[in-house]
Write a structure and sequence with these properties.
single chain; Porin; mainly beta
Length: about 230
């Protein structure tokens, strides 16, 4: 049985248990103007790559995604009984391999883009009315990412084996989740899609670089599975 099936099985059991309870746990929790929490999660990120129409016509670039982790804090401001504003700063770690299949040697054709970044999303949370001890919701917002592993200021580029990205990036984020009210705390699993707005690539010093000149746009696209405790 895969790890994902185990995770979803645990969530399903918790939701079923919440529906089965005849007592409403934490009945006044959602009346708080401001509350805090934390989250843990996993992510699977890759890059969307758009190629230039008229540079290196035989360019063939593929990205191999990897699974990473994320951890962070939550500050939640109640705006309306069904609308909250959330700030969820956290650290996200992930690594991706980029294959430049139009290059012949392994030294030239493979680059690893390690990413450890500070992810700072501001999100609107749109919740349904509470049903017993569960409450589904939608999330939407934008995020600023500071990439600690960007190498943007490194004078060496792909000709020296260094793949460089931008340090400052912006994302938009959408998601769906469910609040599960337990005896002592609220548990909230959610799944989110995270998509880069700007081009994250730092181009090589040579404008005719066989690595970066074929690329018109390179941006993160990823899925986050977060488990919040509030």
């Amino acid at each position: 049985m895969s790890k994902k099936l185990v995770v979803f099985g645990i969530i399903f059991l918790m939701i079923s248990s919440a529906f089965a309870q005849r007592i409403d746990y934490l009945p006044s929790f959602d009346k708080r103007k401001l509350h805090y929490g934390f989250y843990l999660g996993i992510n699977q990120n890759d890059f969307k790559v758009d190629l230039q129409p008229s540079t290196i016509t035989n360019a063939n670039i593929l990205v191999e995604d990897q699974t990473g982790f994320n951890v962070g804090l939550i500050a939640d401001l109640r705006l309306h009984k069904n609308i909250n504003l959330r700030f969820e700063p956290g650290l996200v770690s992930n690594s991706k391999k980029i294959y430049f299949n139009h290059l012949t040697t392994k030294r030239d054709s493979v680059r690893e883009a390690g990413s450890t970044f500070l992810h700072m999303p501001i999100l609107f949370k749109f919740s349904t009315n509470r049903l017993d001890n569960v409450r589904p919701y939608l999330l939407a917002g934008v995020a600023y990412d500071y990439n600690f592993s960007s190498n943007q200021k490194n004078p060496d580029d792909n000709s020296s084996g260094e793949f460089r990205m931008k340090t400052h990036n912006f994302m938009y984020e959408v998601g769906i989740g469910i609040d599960i009210y337990l005896y002592y705390f609220k548990f909230s699993p959610s799944i989110r899609g995270v998509f880069a707005i700007n081009n994250e690539l730092t181009y090589d010093n040579d404008i005719n670089s066989k690595w970066t000149s074929p690329i018109k746009y390179l941006g993160t696209r990823g899925v986050f599975l977060n488990f919040a405790f509030e």
